[in-house]
Amino acid sequence: MTEPTPQRQLGERLVAWLRSDRVTSWVRTVVPALWSAGVAYLVALGLPDWLTEPANGLGQTAAVPVVLGAVYAALRWLEPRVPSWLARFLLGSPRPPTYRQE
User: Residue 94 has what DSSP assignment?
Assistant: First the structure.
């Protein structure tokens, strides 16, 4: 039996890291945040000028965390109700991370 090459060992470590719970949790945070930013942007496009001008751009900034909370809650509610491919598309990974209980 031949020994694995350094490139193969590096590749295996990279794959293990990409499948780690830390990366999964990061992806499942960032992807919904990107969806939320897109939704907030689209909502802000439709807001009337009389509402956005007095806020001097603050309305769009404040909308992002509000929309993030709503979108993330909706995505987590949808997750067990949609096919795996759609969960991957919406959340970045169909597998929630597992955390050690101490």
Answer: S
Count CB atoms within 10 A of the CB of residue 64.
17
DSSP state of 13: H
What's 41-93 look like in SS3?
HHHHHHCCHHHHCCCCCHHHHHHHHHHHHHHHHHHHHHHHHCCHHHHHHHHCC
Distance CA 36, CA 14 (A): 29
pLDDT tens for the chain, residues 1 to 102:
567 787 777 777 777 777 788 888 888 889 988 888 888 777 777 767 666 666 666 666 677 787 888 888 998 899 899 998 998 899 888 888 887 776
How far lies 13's CA from each of 1, 6, 94, 97, in Å?
A: 20, 11, 22, 18
Place of tokens 């990061």: 26
